[in-house]
Queue: 3 jobs
Job 1
Amino acid sequence: MTRALPGKKGFWGKVWDGVKAVFTPTVYLADRQAETLTRNTDLTIEANQRLEKSRQQLRKQELALQEFQREANLEFQAEQNDLNRSLQSELSRLTRELQTQEALLTREFQASEGKKNREHQEKLARLNMELQAELAKLNREFQAKEGNLNREHQVELEIFRSNLQKWCLEQQKELQLELKAIDAELARELRIYDRQTAIEVIHEQKRQNNSPIWLIAEDIVHSNPNQNPIPLRVFLSPPTLRFDRSGDGNDAAKGFPDMEETLGAYLQQFFEKYSAQGRPIEFLAGAWTSKFFHSQAATKSMFRGLKTEPTLILESAAEGDYFNFRFGYWGLNWATYRYKSAITMLPWREVLFDFAKDRALRWKEKRDKHIAAGKNAEEFDNRYGMEMVKRYRRNLEIIENERLCIEDGDDPSEIERLYSIHQNDYNQLRQFIGICHCIIAGLLADEYFLVHVSPEVRQPPLLPQILPDLLQEIPEEEQDKLAEIVVNFYGNLYNLIGQEESAWLAELRLDLAESLLGLPKKHWAEAQIFESVKAWLNLKKPGFSKKPGFWAEGELLDALDSALTIDDLGYVEKLNSCLAAVGKNRQLSVVDSCYNRGIQRCREEKYSAAIVDFNQVIQINPNLAEANYNRGLAYAKLGQYQAAIEDYTQVLRLNPNNANACNNRANAYYKLGDYERAIADYNQALSINPNLPGVAHNRDVAQGVWEEKKRQQREEEERRKVEEEEKKQKQREEEEAKGQEFYFEVITVNAQGREISRKPGKARQKLEQLGNGINLEMVYIPGGMFQMGSSENSSEQPIHQVTIKPFFMGKYLITQEQWQAVMGNNPSYFKGAKRPVENVSWQDAIEFCAKLSQKTGKNYRLPSEAEWEYACRAGTTTPFHFGETITPDLVNYDGNNPYASAPKGLYRQETTLVGSFPPNAFGLYDMHATVWEWCSDRWHDNYNGAPCDGSSWETGGSDNRVLRGGSWDDVAVDCRSAYRNWVALGDRHWDLGFRVAVS
């Protein structure tokens, strides 16, 4: 645009010198420190508290990781111990079985012939072989499970470590945004608080008429109470005001053009671009009412009234031959304002002269070309008119005088230079000053929307995108100088943000690079791209910044590429876009990065970490068969063959002709012992690639193992069938030994004696023939444990647990016909063949058992007291096996004396036929009442020291013998399952009887 004379700095250079002096990092940092000192002091304590809270959270996570590792180790050790115990238990069991079998074989050997001896030896050898095989199997299973647990924990820990690193970074980002949001929220709250004070200040300024904008100040304070971000208010104080209420504001330098409307139009158009992209700016053109108020005093006065509103004041003035441009600026609730001179002592007349000289030189250049082309000069001059030609020639003469003056070493400004100024020269001056206003306003607006708003509405710089259109008419070298100032300014802003929000610096730097792509030269954006990469590496690879030396661009991208994860997809997409925009061919891929890192970790045998990498690849691209294939290899190396099989299966879904996947899946099936599937996969691999090394051999090995396995399975199945048949035969013999099944109903009553349940029951019994058609029915009583005794009487205490072995017990009380068949007499008072024998002593009962044993060849006896109560209860814990009480319909007792809430009933005053009343769940009849039943035990006053194995208590106590069950002549309470009684062993009475037992 301007062709300055030799040795003379152009006016653009003077402008950039002034702007650079304001926006260089050193000056800007000093200003920022002064502006934010007060605000930061208020937030420091809260920020430190939050940072400390964050550190504590991070520490908790570290402790959680340590605790997880400790628990994992404890779980592993516990499982290992369980396996050891299981192995030892199994060894002990097998050893006991072996010892039992050996003892059995030894006895059989001693009692058998040579043929049986050989059979026993063979069986012993087989048992030894089975024992050794079982031990080997258990040992293999233990070692395999131990290895699997260890490897599984490695993968889990690697995944946990990766997730913890991601969590820590996310927490760091969230905390930094939260602190910034708290800062912004505090500023908004203070704004509400300070508004009343601001309104009072405005009223005072209105009263004293000492503010240039008091007419609208109160409206500004009352507007936009909740808007986020709060609009930036911009005021314009042009060199001259068309309507100055003071009458003293239009004393601009003589010849300086009016430009209030022009500047207003320039800025309005400029700010509309900001508002259209989410950066609200309220440009209040015409609000400045008087040039009487100016400079820092006016800014200070406005700051008192509008400190709650982010504000920018653009103030310019022409004094004599010089033009000055200053600005005042503050953010939300700043402690003080910023006031700077952007352009100082710019010789505006020289600027006009430069425009005029440039116009004259261009006219001469066109005229010379016209004449050189053989055309008429007069025709060219007539085109412009003689008056304009005279002006151009006069300006050219002045230019020549200036050149001669400079050659003589004189100052051209000291000679008379009456340049002819065209209206377009004035328009160019207006345009130049408008551009200066837009650039300064754009820099400060970008600072506001980047630094001084809450994070959720933060916006990257917009000026770099608009700048090329603003500077179309500016020489290229001057554009480079301005771009350098702008980029340095933004770089400084991002450095400030990075001090507080380091976790976001990489993304923010990349946003800046994207903003700078609009500049004609791309090296500014390129520089920010690699600053972003450095910030990313400093964040994700803490040791990066400590590495010495200069990092070339390729090295930076290689370092970045080696550390990318799935969480960086958004960053990489924008980075690739920026790299392409600046002409770089390099494009990064998270998939390739994770995949290549996984391959490298496999080479380094870091299989757990490799699996984490392949997981991310598959999550991004589920159809990348290579990722599944290599993850399968890693799982196989860790012994996790089932997971490897799933990966190889996915590979074959995506590519059915992948012979290597078939082969590797076959290997995994082989490791798991699934030989049939392994053989099928080996065959499939060979059908795809018959020349695949080692597959045929592995298939043949698997085939051999599978055939042997099937042979062993057949043998095992045959052996299992034999053992199962032997077991069933033994069970049949045992069941037959228990006798034939018989069926009955089991009745349960409540405390009132009403029936509440009637269920079918069954038991087994054996018949003992006593001659003349008289049989003794013995019921099988299964073994078990029960709580013997009750809390009702001291003789029934303490309640204690007793274990009973299986035995047989008389289904009924011994009847008179059974006594007659064995003893040859009948001592009973109440006669009747099917009535219970009574009037017998304990000694009589013992004699009967001895004769019965002699008669049958079996060892009949009286039941022990524990056996009797166990048999009576038949699994119940209530006072009676019928439930909470009894009635005369169920038991033969003195019905005049009931138990619990049962009603009174029949008192029969004699014995009844055996089996006249319902049985208990074991199938035993008349266990309650009818006659007392002798037990084998000596009498003891309580159960202290009583046996717990169900045996008869033959030591201590007295010679008296135990009676159980009650009788027809007793009250209900004496008939309880736990009730105990005694008489002398020689006593006889019409209510004393018994039933027999046999083991």
Note: The CA atoms of residues 4 and 10 lie 6 Å apart.
Job 2
Amino acid sequence: MSLLCTLTIYAQQWQRTGGPIGGLGYNLKIDPTNNQIIYITDALSGIHKSTDGGATWIPKNNGITSRSGDSNDAIPVFTVAIDQNNPTTIWAGTEYDSGIYKSTDSGENWTKKNNGIIETNIVFREISVVNGDSNTLFASGEVPTGNQGNEFEKVNGVIYKSTDGGENWSRIWSGNSLARWLCIGGNPINLVSSTGIFDREATNTVGMGIMKSTDGGATWNQSNNGITGSLFIGGMSDSSTPGLLYIATGNNAEVNLDTPIKGGVFKSTNGGTTWTQVISSSDVILPGYTEDVFNAVKIAPSNNNIVYAASAYAFYRSDDAGATWTGHRGGSLSSPSPWGPSGIRAGVPIEITIDKTNPDIVYAANYGGGIFKSTDGAKTWQVLGTGYSGATIHKIAPDPQNTSAFLTIGRSGPFKSTNNGTTYDGLYYEEAGHAEWYGAAVHPTNSNTLFISDEHEGLILKSTTGGTSWTTKFNQPNATASVFNQRHGAKELIISKSNPNVIYAGFAYQFFYSDPDNTTFPNSFGVYKSTDAGETWTQSGTTGISATNLNITALAVNTTDENSVYIGLRGDGLFHSTDGGANWTNIGQGMPDQTIHGIALADNNSIIYAATKSKGVYKSTDNGNNWTQVLSEVNTSTDFPTKLLMSIAVNPTNKKNIVVGDIHTGVYMTTDAGANWTNINQGLANRAITSLAFSSDGKTLFTGTKGSGVYSYNTTTLAVDNYSNLSILKNAYPNPSSGKITLDLQPNTFQSLEVEIFSITGKRILKKSYKVKNNKVEINLQHLSKGMYIVSYPLLNGLKKSSQILIE
């Protein structure tokens, strides 16, 4: 007898921590009738809405069917627009599937409106509604080509127009660079479109700059008179003053050329016909610093003389219509850091939004950062609220001395939580001011000693202050961020538990987390080792691995012997060293997949588990001489035929409890050393798993995702995806029952047993402690109505067992 149902006990779900901050934030729009209502978009986690001025955020994606990402769970909303004529009407545009959605109830529900859209892979970057005419609107976007430029993909652009409230669309422009912001003049036949962005290249290489139409979009002409340098327009802002426009220009690929092409800020007073530069890359607004790429600009709606411009490094303000500017960034004059809240990398500002009555209240939505607010004119910033994270996590490193603390690192930088992820402290201080990150580790006996590594420049940093200050201890000399194919970092950082002075770092080429299925990559630098607590580093030997690509994607150290080290390579197998990395032996030849993404040691290091990229999990009990597959790579009832495993972890207090993370289908758990596995995804909105780690007491499991930050899971109870996976156990009888049941327990189990009874909807009905007599517990449930119930009780290993009971 079994029950086919997809419900689970509520207490047994993953919990979204809502952090750390990060993601691909794009738009931030404020309701024109109520400044407490704010909408934000994220290319990974969709639309979130706040009704309390940004203090808290709630996802609002009902009806948006667009999905993307490694697990098809990401909600790729790039742009949101509020109809100023009717603020309960909201528009949204999605990424890579040409999706346009309309809501008529302030974002509660959405309906797709893309009739007439020709291309199938458009990334919509802006939707604009004509003031005074809700039926006329424009949608601007990019059309990917799949062709790589010097740094980024080369793309084309399109603009669509609707004259019937979005029911039908027609294409009115296409060109060689993506279409971004659209400014609509007082007469809606006058249109000014900006093209380009900092992280895309144009199919014509040089970009197109400003496109202008004077006939409602029927014809277009370039309008770049006065624009010098880059023709990639990061930001554009119009105003209530007729003809007044500002643009911010620059592209990261252009500034890395042998002859850099730099950006600036430009102003037009005649609707974009001509332009005057008001900030140049050579202007020294901040001491010792010049700007190359400007990403956003905005005119204050209450005072058109006040203008803000921003880059990834600084925020600028003018109070005299662009004649002079004041710059703001973090840190001190001797040790400057980018703008943003203390300890946090703000990322790249994509949109600036200014309060309609107070020009000192400024909001910024950012790539790779978060949503921030300033109340003093961009001098200082605060993180805007909780409950929203689009962060991609690369590594979670628990604190062995604090069961509630962990260090995490990803695209938005290093963060530390000391309360199981309820709050996060940013650790982006001093020398930790880099753009992309790989690894993290916490000292086994000193919580203040932390290590992190970047992804591009081969850096290893150390902190002895809990992350409030950092010192660079190693810089791989052949890794450099400025050359695309020379970006490498220490993906793995492991501190020996038996001798914390010994630390191993495994180097790999960039993009492991963004493209884990890639099979074409340059050779990296193998293993580096420190024997003085990270102060100095030397390259380990390559004897036995000299013929490999030296891309280390997994690393484990014997907990009782710092010289016993295991490494997994990208495409080249699993190796073991017994002499601290001087020599290596291939022990993974018995596995069909030679790309190893995770290694875990159990039972006093006598058992090795290897998570392969595409062939599941293998187990060896004889140090790699023989391997047995314990978790198949095959997926069923899914869009992904095979798993792509990213991480593996062993519970430190129960070595038979092992978890693996698949970037396609979530988390798998075994409590019997691999004999049986259960997919535990309840509550996990994003199954794109990048990292797994247990707390030091084994009671909490943390997972990092690609686009939803960190989730936590209470391992003292086990969840399953559906109750059909639960058999009717023989130790609970009679079943069906008239109400009196007996639990037949293992000998010498407990003197008393706490039993919980749940309804099939997950509501707890009973929690009571029963005496155990002769290894049995008698339970009287005659007071319950007829139906199916769940009986849950603890096992010796601290986990819980749940079984079905039918009361007739």
Note: The first strand starts at residue 15 and ends at 16.
Job 3
Amino acid sequence: MKIKVLPFYLFVLFPFCLNAQSQRSYNAAEIKQGLEALSVTGRVLYIAAHPDDENTRLLAYLSKGKKYKTAYLSLTRGDGGQNLIGTEQADQLGLLRTQELLAARQIDGAEQFFTRANDFGFSKTAEEALRFWDEKKILSDVVWVIRKFQPDVIITRFPGDERAGHGAHAASAILAEKAFSAAADPRQFPEQLAYLKPWKTGRIVWNTFNFGGTNTITADQLSMDVGQYNALLGQSYGEIAADSRSRHRSQGFGSAKQRGSAMESFQHRAGVPAKKDLFEDVDASLNKYPGLKDVQFLINDINKRYRVEAPYESIAQLLQLKTATAKLPFDHVKLDELILACAGIWIEAVSAHPAYGVNDLMTYELQAISRLPSGSPLKVELLVDREDPIELKPGNLIRLNRALPDSARKLTQPYWLANPHGIGAYVFTGIENLGAPENKAPSAGDVAIKINGTRIAVDRSIIYKYANPAVGEIYQPLVIAPPITATLQEKAYVFNNQTPRKISVSIRSFIKNAKGKLEIKVPKGWNVAPSSIDLNLAEKGTEEILDFTVTPNEKATSGKLELQIVTAGETYNKGFQQIAYEHIPVQTLFPQAEARLEQLDLKFAGKQIGYVAGAGDLIPQSLKQVGYEVTMLDANLLNGDLSRFDAIVTGVRLYNINEDAAAMQAKLMAYVKNGGTLVQQYNVNNPLKISQIGPYPFTITRDRVTEEDADVSFLKPDHALLNYPNKITQKDFEGWVQERGIYFASNLDEKYTPILRMGDKGEQPSNGSLIIAEYGKGKYIYTGLVFYRELPAGVPGAYRLFVNLLSAGAKSTDKK
């Protein structure tokens, strides 16, 4: 056992703006953009299936060019995709991609919505996606967003057929078109009418495309140029879009900036057809709402008189506008933001600590300053919780110490991950978060600014900030945690015999003097010692590493290891995890304190493995669990003596992302030629850093098997890969998760031997999931089987087959 104190957010290097409730600075050009937008009431909702499906160039044009209120509804959070920058998968990847979407929206100016749909992986048909999601449930969510956002125009990214290229893509279009009608029908989802009204959208169109070998653009479609230049912002919408799309780093979507004309085309789907403009015959002006027509003259005058060197001169007229529209359907939030920006008012609520226990006393400092010119005739006051007003004199920073009320002390767990969920959809109660991209952060409460007697509400989240000597000021979300958390190192613990195994757990305190007991539960057939451990952590932020021993007996079967912490009369069962990258705010979640226990019948031939990391996976840790000695290799280490390795494995997408791939390949092929075994995991066919990744030609296709329980046939049942050192049977393909494999091989040189045959129901099976060839004295293997998902999940058959691949070069009279 060892005790250590760790600082929170250890890996954070860069500042990041948190969310809409955090203070945002507007420069004079952005204020002018906002003033011009006050006359525009048009709303556009863009709908697709995943993060990164959205057309950021179109969103930027509609939001910042046409100044329509624009939003993107992504049905899923992208949990089922791949990750090019780290090891996060499933729920954690969805959390990362959610934040990448929010970062993109901060650049292109659109809002972001989601449904409850879980991204369960690649789907080949819309029918499958709708079945897994529960079509009616997700249709209800899309209708909710339409009724809440009230768009004039809906745009889909994909068609509702096979041209979409992905079942979820097609399903997003099908649901959008059904929701277009359902949102206007009070008989559809009437339970929503307690909160929202039916909404009739003017038209729905499909944003056609020419990519991926599919051209859906025709001459008769409505088209418009969205590549224009915005002089106020100093960028074209293509440039803004590239910055936005480049936020999707986990997907490798860094984009070059595009300048010049850029045409977008649209096919009419329902509603009133348009021939020349998306908003043809749609009133996007203030005339749409009774009473607002009369304020247009005032807005025009504000824009005419606005001076970029003196935005504060517009405040008096903006306050007049606020009074005139007080009881009218106007964008009061945007107007309030513009008034505060013109006054140079900065307000933020800063926590004293980065994290608190849920029952801890939480304090923060409310800071406010007005940067109006000295001698300004405007009287500015700060109002907090209905207390006496405090005058904000120009240049004077006000600091008020406050305490977070008990009602606001809620666990900062992503709301859609608060409960266990199945393959199709997240599970959560209540409607306050439905459609929302993330939890609303703890609020600073009832805060307002009064300027010359006019009250302006201020919504500010409580944040944590600190100064990093290397990069400066850093902002991060406030964390509210259980008093004590228990975090296991693995999601699955794999045992190969009845040998006892030490398991470590990280105990972290979020309060002072944290006392309690850790209780450890194992299923029948397993033993644990000790079964409970007393806890006593004196300091907040202390991390204590505790060990216990788990032993399976001969009758042990798959089961669950569960941890509970009893403290102050309450029981907690949460771990602690943070996702930290420079392009998003640090994300904190509290997963269940549990792991899978798996007992395998596993035989080995060789234990020394070299591993060349690819885009990020957890296979090295998985191999170490069952007794392999794994050495991580890079381009320099590949110059050493490789003959000591029984096999070398390359990580997923190595040949797509590593600039040293060509130099590595020569060394790896020499290793094989001299008698080594090389196991290459999947790569995508474009872009590859080298033209040929194997010793002989083959083509990497987009073929995949998405059904995790798809039938598997043995093409070479007597081949060593299926017999040594473990006899592979159909049972070894039971219990796989998400999918069988992706990016299979095809057009094989005659020197390759395909081992397995598999395919989704109703499709032509593929022979390219696992191929092997002799090269010189060694063995070369390429596999699209998703071992990077299966091994960390503790799937027994995947372990047994992977061990056979690693043993391909071992000496055995059984091998054929």
Note: The first strand starts at residue 2 and ends at 5.
